[in-house]
Write a structure and sequence with these properties.
The protein is of the alpha/beta class. The protein has helices at residues 60-76, 98-105, 124-131, 145-151, 160-173, 192-205, 229-242, 263-273, 278-287, 292-300; strands at 12-18, 22-27, 83-86, 112-116, 135-139, 177-183, 209-213, 246-249, 276-277, 304-309, 312-317.
């Protein structure tokens, strides 16, 4: 077990609308950029030091207390809440307390989701932790070694064969919903040969859904651009033929918070996980009864930072 590096609150954000999970309350269970990959398309920037050693990052009781308080507030307001989702700024399975925390959240009687890159599933204890969740998403961008190293930039000590074998073992015993996610980057993993091999592997997992996504927000590497429309259409066809249950997410999601959310706190927590388009920020402010001057103040005071991507304005946590 690695040395504990304890987080001081800030575990929860939302609830927000999710295209896959309905109204989802996000949970940050690892510090920012604590990850086994440094994907070229990562919205949170490069991972300074990739790692695969699991350790404790928080006291489970503290995280559960913060989640419980937010859930109670949402319920008092009579608002829907479909999932509690572990979707941190890194890889959630690096958290050695993940399985225990999921069990401690069970009394809330809300389905639990985990969005993982799947890189640690060769470890039996990681498979056991994820098996406690109701819905699990695994990243499968490629099954080719050269693309994997260029695209996902894995931590030292990881083996693609072992990663894929771990996913297959997990899928074979999965009791909850299992989905896959494949991010298509132009000129990287979007050739027919790459797509066919990826789809063939995903088919062995028998996922509930296979999601094909694009890097639509600012990426850690400027060259990591969305695949061309023709490649996306080919991917849809190839995945449909081999897997059947494919959904292409090629547009930004509509960020719809509860109208009772502290909008400044919400902006801080969301932009720490992924950049928000200017229009998304404006919409959040408008739905909270606020307007553009607040956005200018947040940038001027160093809460948010403006970034340009394909000529579009995005905001990230400063």
């Amino acid at each position: 077990m690695g040395t504990a590096t304890f987080m001081q609150g800030g575990f929860v954000f939302g609830p927000l609308a999710s295209r896959r999970l309905g109204r989802s309350l996000g949970i940050n269970n690892v510090p920012r950029k604590t990850c086994s990959y440094s994907c070229v398309y990562c919205q949170a920037g490069r991972t300074p030091h990739t790692e695969i050693e699991r350790r404790a990052f928080y006291e489970p009781a503290a995280l559960v207390a913060e989640v419980t308080a937010r859930v109670e507030k949402v319920r008092q307001l009579g608002e829907p809440l479909d999932y509690l989702t572990f979707v941190p700024q890194g890889e959630p399975t690096l958290d050695i307390e993940l399985g225990r925390t999921i069990e401690l959240l069970r009394p809330l009687r809300i389905p639990i989701a985990v969005i993982s890159n799947g890189s640690l599933l060769w470890q039996p204890e990681v498979r056991r932790a994820l098996a406690a969740a109701d819905w699990v998403s695994l990243k499968v961008d490629t099954v080719h070694e050269d693309i994997w190293h260029r695209h996902n930039r894995p931590a030292e000590g990881l083996s693609l064969d072992r990663v894929l074998a771990g996913m297959k073992r997990f899928a074979a015993d999965a009791r909850g919903a299992l989905v896959s996610e494949t991010m298509l980057v132009r000129g990287s993993n979007d050739t027919d040969v790459a797509l066919e091999a990826t789809a063939d592997f995903i088919a062995t997992l028998s996922p509930t859904r296979s999601y094909v996504t694009l890097p639509l927000r600012p990426t850690s590497e400027a060259w990591a651009q969305p695949a061309e429309r023709e490649a996306v259409d080919r991917a849809r066809w190839i995945f449909w033929r081999r897997i059947g249950r494919v959904v292409v997410l090629d547009q930004l999601a509509d960020v719809r918070p509860t109208c009772h959310t502290d909008v400044v706190s919400l902006l801080r927590t969301i932009t720490a996980v992924h950049p928000l388009h200017h229009d998304e920020v404006e919409l959040l402010l408008a739905r909270s009864g606020m307007r553009h001057p607040l956005l200018e103040d947040l940038v001027r005071h160093g809460t948010l930072r403006l970034e340009m991507h394909h000529g579009e304005r995005f905001y990230v946590a400063a």
